[in-house]
Design a protein that fits this description.
By secondary structure, this protein is an alpha+beta fold. It has 15 helices and 41 strands. The N terminus is likely disordered.
Amino acid sequence: MKTWSKVLIGVVSVVVLLIVGVYLAVKIALPPEKVKAWIAEDGSRILNRSIVVGDISIAVFPTIRVAAQNVELANRKGFSNDPLFSAKEIGFAVDFWSVVQLSPVVKSIVLVEPNILFEVNQDGENNLAGLGKPEEVGAGKSETSTGASSESEPSTKLATPGTSDSTKSAAPSIPIPLDLQEFRLENARVRYLDQSQQRNIVLGAINQTAAVSADSQAQTVRLQGVLNIAQIQVSDAASGVQKGDVRFSVNHNLLVNLANQTLTLNQLELGVQELAVNVSGTIQRLLQASPQLDLTFATNTIGLPTLIKEVPPGMVPALADWNVTGSFQANGSVAGAVGGTALPKLKASLTLNDIAAVHQKMKVGLEGLKGAIHITENSAELADLQFQLGQQPITLSAFVSELQPMMKLDRLQLKGVANLEQTLAMASQFATLPEGFSALGTINLDIQGKGVIDPQKPQLLKMQGAIDMENLMVSAPALPKSLQAQGQIQFNNDRITTNMQTQIGESDLSVSGNIRDYLAMALPDLAQGKRTRVNFSLNSNRLNLDELMPPSPETEVAEAAPAGTEAAEAPPMEEFPALPEVDATINTQFKQVDWKGLTIRNLTSKAGLKNNVLDADMKGQLYSGRFQQTVRVDLKDRRNAKIKGGVQLKSIEANDFISRFNDLLSTKNELLKSLAKTDDTLFGKLSLDVDMTTQGLPHTFMEQAAGNFSMRVFDGKLAKAGLVEEFAKTISQLSSDLDFEELNFQELFMAMEVKDQKVHVKDLKLNLPALGLMDFQGTVGFDGKLDLPVAHRLQKEASQALLGVESNITSQLANLVNIPELKEASLMPQDDQGRALLYYQVTGSASSPKFSLDSKRMKGAVKSQTDKIEATLRAQEAALKQKLEAEKQRLEAEARAKIEAEKKRLEAEKKRLEAEARARVEAEKKRLEAEAKKKAEKEKKRLEKEVKKKAEDLLKNLKF
């Protein structure tokens, strides 16, 4: 009994001594002043920052507790005066008895009102640089070495586990069990200040409680607790974003087995404002290069109004005008290895619940949005997404069966009805529409798609569908009147087909046709030899181009500009725009086209484009006649276009055509400028045939123009203006009876050639019933200069009127041709029929012509007339001599002929008698020869018979 008492007393004594020893050790080792000095001096030296500490309090029993009040860690020099770190209190508490038992339990680590400041100055340097390191003398920059760590610094790298046993790390262990019952932050604050970007981020009202426990073999480490950040404030001068009072929370219950390298998430709940995400599961091979995940996650039902409320107003101001309702939630799982090229398998679903977005002013918008999005590691599905846009239903579904290596779309289906008025009203809240732009009508969509989504081979994605447009009406500043349209567009990867009917004011147009292999134009590198082919037909009852293309304000101002002022010319074109790489055929059939005062009826045309060559053929009715036009434009060389064209006009009223066509002519060329002023000068039925070529660029077309054209005008008249007025002045000076107010003609014919910047008049005939025939030849330059010799053969009555005023005419002619003897003579140049001939010279310019008698040709004509009279007399004398000589020769010939005839008769008679005698002799000769021949034949037969008989007798007498 005494022994056990002694043992018990001994044990108690040892325990008491141990308790007293621990108590005294703490009291002696950790006096407040020593702790305070250690923190202020050694801590400042170690961290290379000044540390200020207030009161230090130490308690030993029943809990060993050390607390420091009002701790501050100074900021780096050159930064703000606020401390880098400060705390109202930092406390550390260990259970006394756990220390005595050599199994310490940390009851708490508490930081009350800690403040951390991370700061970046204007030069991009931060206030943490150099923390724990002595700064170099004179260094103005922070130590941001990117090289290897100092030799004095221990390496913090973890060896990556390998496959060899020798490289595997042993499971970590600690000499005694660890138990942290509470780690607590009270009202903490973290501030990030970037002066260079004027950005300020504050995490405030941070409160956290956490507990950690682990055994000595580190088989189990449990971490659990709650972190709440009640205030997150962000301000950014660059983006204008300002946001405050954002809440964040983390609630976790984690179990770590370091020996097995396994992390078990019993509970991990992340919360931002009203959003909560719950994650659970395990992470294996925690410390290896490719951890193995097996996690599930799910969100709460998130209301969109609450979520949108958190968007800063300055970021999307327009959101304030929208009323958004509805909610969504997400859930899924992540399983598999992660790290390097390895990716875990993801399965996730996003469910949309009756989402609506309606603008306050419109009262309509997107409504009833519901559906789901499902994602796996290699697939994605949009499952029956349904919504209404302006009360118009739209459905969308899609399924992607493969995401890697290329996305394979198995199904895409989009159907919907869009009301343009409501759609534009919504679009106007996001973008500024042109003033005066509006649209009405309905568009029905039905689009399907499937295939591989490869940016390098977009043709592998097969799309098809139809777009139906019903009762469209579009108004825009560029349109003279509202555009009305309806029709359908169908498309697939190979072809786009359209059938549309449109109406603008008085004009209607229907378009039908297709575009085949259009991807070859959009993706020429993938065309594989194919070319886009376009084939369209255009039909119209009426096209009023004057209404569709009214003059622009600039054109009206230019037309109203005072004479002599010219608008500044644009620089000349350097090359034509590139034509699309397509083969196109466009056929048109228009019943009536109105343009610049011209009315064209039954206009048909065919235009084709191939290999940068455009061919067009057009024909129709113009006024009471008809026309046809062909043109070829070769743009293979965009700096040197080659153009060839022809125009044929038949029986068109000349003045109607010219008075309207000349308004289209350029006024930069002198010749065309003069033609532009020829209204009401030529009347009659006009036929025109033009064949022209040119090349180059637009500003060189006139210089390079070449070709031929001819023109006929029947039963017409020329007004007394311009060249005709000058002719009237000239001819009226010869005789007042030849004066006129206008020139009526039966036919005006022109044959001309254009070359070398001139119009060469090969033949120009003007048949005037009252004045005769006028014949023009010569040239008209593109600069307007005239050089036209004219021959005028007067009509009979006009000739008599002219010859009846001899004294005036012969006097003028005598002076013109320099023959004084003609003053008393009555002589005018005349043709074989006695009609007077006049010769003129047309000079000056097309805008100011000069018409005068050609003295040189008149003189030559007078001399030619006198030479002609003398030649006539000489011819008559020569003719008489020739007649007498001919009569003499005739009589002599008759006598010779009679003698020769008689001689021939006698010769013929002689020959006849000789022939008759020869015939009689020849006949007798033939008779005697025939009789002799007959007798010889008879004797021959008799002898043959006799010989034969003797031969037979001889044979009979022969005996063998």
